[in-house]
Amino acid sequence: MTAKQLKIKVKGTLRDLLAFKNLAKKRMQRFRKAPATRYSSLHVNDLAARLHPASQNLVIKEVRDETKSSRTFTLAADREAGTGEIAYFQAGQYLSIRETVEGCAITRPYSIASSPADALNGFYEITIRKTDKGFFTGHVWEHWKVGRKVVASAPMGQMFYSPLRDSRRIVAVAGGSGITPFRAMAREICAGGIDASLRLIYGCSDEGDIMFIDEFREMAKAHPDRFSFVLVMSCDEVTLEGCEKGFITGDIIARHSDPGSDSYFLCGPDLMYDFVTRELVSLGVPLRRLRREAYGEIKNPSRFTGYPSGAEGKTYSIVVHGRGKTETITARGDESVLVALERARYAPPSACRSGECQFCRTLLLKGDVWVGPESDGRREADRRNGYIHPCASFPVSDLELELPTAGTREG
Amino acid sequence: MDNRWNREYDAVVVGAGNGGMTASTQLALLGKRVLLLEQHNIIGGFSTSFVRGRFEFEASLHELCDVGSSEDPGGVGELFKELGVEVEWMSVPEAYRLIVPEKNLNVVMPFGVSEYIDAMERYVPGSRPAVTKFMDLADEVMRALQYLAESKGNPDRKVLMGEYGNFMRTTAYSLDQVCDAVGVPKAARDILYAYWCYLGVPTSRLNFTIFAAMINRYLIKGAYIPRYRSTEMALAFERRFRELGGTIECGTRVEKILVEKGSVTGIVTASGERIKTGHVLCNASLPRVYGEMVHPESEVPEMALRSMNARSVAGSGFVVFLGLDASPDELGLKDYSYFIYHDTDTDALYDGLYRLGRPTVQAAVCLNRAVPDCSPPGTTIMSITCLYKPEAWKDVEPKDYFKLKNELAGYFIDDFEAATGCSIRGHIEEIDIAAPPTYARYTGAYQGVIYGYEVDSWDSLMPRMMMMKDDIYIKGLRFASGWGFRCIGYSSALQCGRTEALLTSLDMDQEKGGAAS
Where does B140-187 show beta strands of DSSP type E? Predict the structure, then answer.
């Protein structure tokens, strides 16, 4: 049928053509009748801002020695600085703390150790273990006192319970300070906020330095159906009763859980992360029942097989375009591009420091980087267009890059 | 330039979403000095993707309309070619599968007009004449729109009356009204209307012209998606824009659009930088631009506010992203695009968009059916989308938010499984859920709305085109997005951005001419 033969009328030819002719007039009439007011509600944007504030101004309300090497800091909204409430979160998420240390603006991710219910009561807790040469933890021990102001990101991260994906029997495998997100989960589960049970397999190296041990004992006693734990002590002499000895292995995991149906959540240092992942896979645990916290910042890239040998001892130059100028800085082969930028007093945005969150996404114009196998969270189109995540990228040649403008702070 | 300003550009584009990207690339192609500002740290707006575990999820695009093949490109395909933006397009295999369990309706509709009419005849015997008539009419609508575009707003009335009389007689009416006139049987409408949810307005109000243009383009040109999610598209625009000398700055929120005596004079960023320009193209949502960005407030004409209050904002999105640890074959996912509705009455379905209960509508996609290697071998990427009206989220508090998302996502998965017979639940390796606050968070869109204004017949493509000059309330301020004259949708936003850029360029030429005379 050609267009000429087709003849459609809706209300009659004349009325239809009049309707066409009057479209603009009718539209204008409707406009004229409407009120001349601005929008009355932005509740969806407001909800988004409460859940995901760009940053949170916090103040330290309490400092508590958790063990001989760790401290718990209670953080609340700093109303003077304009943060009215702290953001709600899901147990297992972290805050990226933004601090200036020795002139360098840096970030450090710390799991929230308190529960979401605690956040509704106005506080977060983060528990930090002091490390021997800790650039950041040394600063914290010196300066983080009651009343100190701290700036943090919104709660972030993907290691939380999903009722649609996970088994209702969660097995948490924690090493050292990797325990903190599971303290949040344990509290939430015992309070009934998550309808699941938590079995904790907790690897520690010093009987006198076990975070949250008293609290875990109390929770296990009060909620035996919801929470239980076993310690795996790697020290030479073990005096505590009921512990497993050595490192966390597949055998130990299989003795204390059901690899055929439980969901495993893993958080700990990188070597444990690699080892336990292999053990769980060999127990037949499919990836859908394995949740892992972000890998963490790679400290020693040369231990990876794909890393070009010798690069760790070298120094490279990076041409940086940003903040309206171009500068050349130096970078060590064994430190991430992000650390090199931070050392050079740039303050690029970052959060997870594991290649996952995209905050530090940067356009690499020239040169090559090595990216850790567990830390390449780039999108395929990003990879193909030369974008890198500096937090998970190590220079293996001289580089040239364009600093992102996003959130770049004064160093 | 006086010292009130830090920098100066011919044009500033606010927001690097679909409309902002085409607008800025087009202006740069014309040799204009353009600054593209994006508040998020990544460009693309809704055209983006994200990684969870070993999966990379598409954030928003189901299928792009009017791309066409490289040999036979559609309008959007031409746009990419002419702007010099290269994307690897993957074709979507079929138009859609529609399932309405309550009506025992389960059909697969192919691309191609005659194939579509044949399939309809098989499902609804006797429907052929009316559906053929409908498709012929849709074809005339499309040709009329092409003629209007070619005539640059000055059509010859005789040509319009002579060649496109049916288009003119139907453009003031709803889809239902025109289907009544054409005599499309009820059972055929139930199938034909499936795409209504891409426009988000019930067929009793949804304008016929825009629906006709959409189905015509889908059936004739097929549907395409970029191989590496819509991120590939966004980054291809970025690359081209830089190549053309454009300046792009992410993480830079525009706080104020400065207006003096009815004309744009510049913008102020959140960090206080003042940038001089006489031309601002907003990808940013209309209510936020007039509601809070134009400065001083007294420069917002009353009519601009009235024009917004006269209309209703369309929906925001709710998407369940699933990374599954089995292949589409193992899961029984045969198709790319699934529409699952709990009624054939689109008014009833639309009412459901105001409620946070069991959903009435879902549009699901199995990405692997268009991009087989989008996820590792033996896995599948699926997404299930629904629209919600912002009002539905009014009383949601942060403490309820995560539970609510999981509860709603559970309904969507259950409904999908019940409708298709596929077993999904036991295969979920990664799940993420985007809700209206997610869209608001990443783009700043007013109420997280992903579309723009509803396309009722009184405010659809034609009346907006007829009033393009009237809709400019501030000289130098134009809108390049789904809020603009081309109405709702990905391809509309892309094309809108380009047209507004061309019009901006004409404005600039006129200013120059004016200054010289």
Answer: none
| Residues spanned by the domain of A60 | 47-152
What ipTM describes this predicted complex? 0.96
Cα–Cα nearest to A179, from A130, A223, A213, A146: A213
* CB-CB neighbours of B492 under 10 Å: 28
CB-based burial label for B502 (10 Å; 0-12, 13-18, 19+): middle
Q: CB contact, 8 Å: A281 with chain B?
A: no
In a domain, A246, yes or no: yes
- The end-to-end CA distance of chain B, in Å, is 22
Instruction: Show the DSSP H helices in B398-473 as ranges.
Output: 398-420, 436-443, 461-466
For B211-226, write each residue's pLDDT tens digit. 999 999 999 999 999 9
Tokens of B138: 């849709």
Judging contacts by C-beta atoms under 8 Å, the chain A residues touching residue B182 are 8
Q: Are residues A322 and A361 in the same domain?
A: yes
The Cα B89–Cα B236 span in angstroms is 12
Residue B376 CA to residue B328 CA, distance in Å, equals 12
What pLDDT score was predicted for residue A18?
96
Residue type, A150: V
Q: What is the pLDDT of residues B148-158, one digit of tens each?
A: 999 887 889 89
DSSP run (H or E) holding B305? helix B302-309
- Distance separating alpha carbons of residues B282 and A314, to the nearest angstrom: 48
Instruction: Please give the residue of chain A at the shortest CA–CA distance from B447.
Output: A44
Domain co-membership, A307 together with A286 = no
The answer to whether B12 touches B35, Cβ cutoff 8 Å, is yes
Which tokens in the block code for residue B85?
A: 């933006």
**What CA–CA distance (Å, rounded) separates B455 from B211?**
10
Residues 6+ apart with CB under 8 A from A176: A129, A203, A204, A205, A268, A269, A272
Strands A56-65 and A149-152: antiparallel
Q: Tell me how many domains chain A contains.
A: 3
Same domain assignment for residues A265 and A366: no
- Cβ separation of B467 and A35 shorter than 8 Å? no
Average pLDDT of the residues of chain A: 94
Q: Which of B261, B281, B374 lies closest to B328 in space, CA to CA?
A: B374
Nearest by CB to A24, from B291, B431, B463: name it. Answer: B463
Q: How far is CA B118 from the centre of its chain?
A: 29
Asked whether residue A230 falls in the same domain as residue A330, the answer is no
Which positions ≥6 away from A328 have C-beta within 8 Å? Answer: A317, A318, A319, A320
Show the beta-strand stretches assigned E in B250-379. 254-260, 263-269, 274-276, 280-282, 294-295, 316-324, 337-341, 361-366
Q: How far apart are CA B268 and CA B246, in angstroms?
A: 19
> Are A394 and A364 within 8 A, CB to CB?
no
pLDDT average, residue stretch B229-251: 97
Q: Do A405 and B251 touch (CB under 8 A)?
A: yes
Instruction: Write out the two tokens for A220.
Output: 């296990």
- DSSP code of B6? S
User: Which CATH number fits the domain that encloses residue A271?
Assistant: 3.40.50.80
Tell me whether residue A163 is in a domain.
Answer: no
Among partner residues B51, B169, B446, which is closest to A379 by beta-carbon distance?
B51
Q: Is residue A210 part of a domain?
A: yes
The answer to whether the bond into B73 is cis (omega within 30° of 0) is no
Nearest residue to A298 (alpha-carbon basis) of A350, A374, A247, A359: A374
Contact B251 A380 (CB under 8 A): no
Mutate to test the interface with B, among A2, A4, A9, A23 (most CBs of B within 10 A): A23
Integer Cα distance of A353 and A293 in angstroms: 12
Cα A200 from Cα A232, distance rounded (Å) = 10
For residue A46 the two structure tokens come to 């407001």
Would residue A355 count as lying in a domain?
yes
How far, in Å, CA of A186 to CA of A226, rounded?
8
What pLDDT, on the 0 to 100 scale, is given for residue A5?
A: 82
Q: Do A129 and A173 belong together in one domain? A: no
